[in-house]
Design brief:
313 residues, alpha/beta, D-Maltodextrin-Binding Protein, domain 2, Double Stranded RNA Binding Domain, globular
Length: 313
């Protein structure tokens, strides 16, 4: 087995969007900085999610932005991959594993609006752009008068649609805007108490092959233990709910002094019914906590909401 400190070229699989490349280049720079004998070469991979031009929830299934990259990993065409954790399905293909989670960026959603209005200040019957059923459900719960306009496209494309579609506002992830240096566009940061983020939002996930110990050792230096525990809890919550693509499931975990708190939510797409819960416990038991909270929400009727969403999707 080669040492990672030899002059070594490693291939990193990534989508080719502006944000994906920004994230992949950040990982590349950190790894090359920490391991001077390693050169990381980016391999651009077009995913199914990049090809379709209609709402993701109409396709069904999760993993539209990762499947082709994971297949390239399994075929040995790339050595590691960088994903936005929120794009990952609850189940990782056999032979692959999530090896490292760098420290989380701001997990909140944000509003970009005309004249910098907040969600409370949007006009009655105003047009709100989002491609996410999770965001749609929670915003309609707050403002049932709003008209939701479905958005697709990369981050820059969705921002442009604010004017091209004559929208009053769009909802996006703070993390992507911060990574691109576009924070000045933000009109309002949405508190997780009113707009709970997607599972894994704001987190980068580095994936590799289970048996590739060299890559595992290489990327271990980028792992942030509190972020890993948080994402583990959120993903275990999602997995127990059997959440697919774009269903109205939300969750956010935080770790403070080895204690983890996880808030989870399941909502009807029209925002009328919202089931929410919170659990706290040891960060060492993050996976169990996610399952326990999911069970609690299922007992409160979350399963009926999800079945209705899948049926109508």
């Amino acid at each position: 087995m080669n040492s990672p400190h030899r002059r070594d070229k490693l291939r990193l699989g990534t989508r080719a969007s502006l944000l994906a490349l920004q994230q992949a280049n950040w990982v590349k720079a950190r790894l090359e900085e920490q391991h001077p004998g390693v050169e990381i070469v980016l391999v651009h991979i077009k995913t199914e999610g990049d090809k379709i031009d209609f709402p993701l929830f109409k396709v069904g299934g999760k993993g539209l932005f990762v499947k082709e990259i994971e297949n390239a990993l399994l075929r040995g065409e790339v050595d590691l991959a960088v994903h936005s954790a929120k794009d990952l399905p609850a189940l990782i293909p056999e032979g692959l594993m999530l090896m490292s989670f760098p420290e989380r960026e701001d997990p909140r959603d944000v509003l970009i609006s005309v004249e910098g209005r907040t969600w409370k200040e949007l006009p009655q019957g105003g047009k709100m752009g989002t491609g996410s059923l999770r965001r749609q459900a929670q915003m309609l719960h707050l403002r049932p008068d709003l008209e939701i306009v479905s958005l697709r496209g990369n981050l820059d494309t969705r921002i442009k649609k604010l004017s091209t579609l004559q929208l009053d506002a769009v909802i996006l992830a703070s993390a992507g805007l911060r990574r691109m240096g576009w924070e000045d566009k933000v009109s309002e940061y949405l508190d997780p108490n009113i707009m709970l983020p997607a599972i894994g939002q704001g987190v980068l996930a580095i994936e590799g092959r289970v048996r590739d110990g060299r890559i595992h050792r290489l990327v271990a230096s980028l792992n942030h233990a509190p972020t890993q525990a948080s994402v583990t809890a959120e993903r275990s919550f999602l997995k127990r709910l059997e959440g697919g693509c774009q269903v109205p499931i939300a969750g956010l975990a935080r770790v403070v002094a080895e204690k983890l708190s996880l808030t989870g939510l399941v909502a009807g797409v029209d925002g009328r019914k919202v089931i929410k819960g919170k659990i706290e416990g040891s960060a060492a038991k993050s996976e169990d906590l996610g399952i326990e909270l999911a069970e609690e929400l299922l007992e409160k009727g979350a399963g009926d909401i999800l079945r209705g969403t899948y049926k109508n999707g």
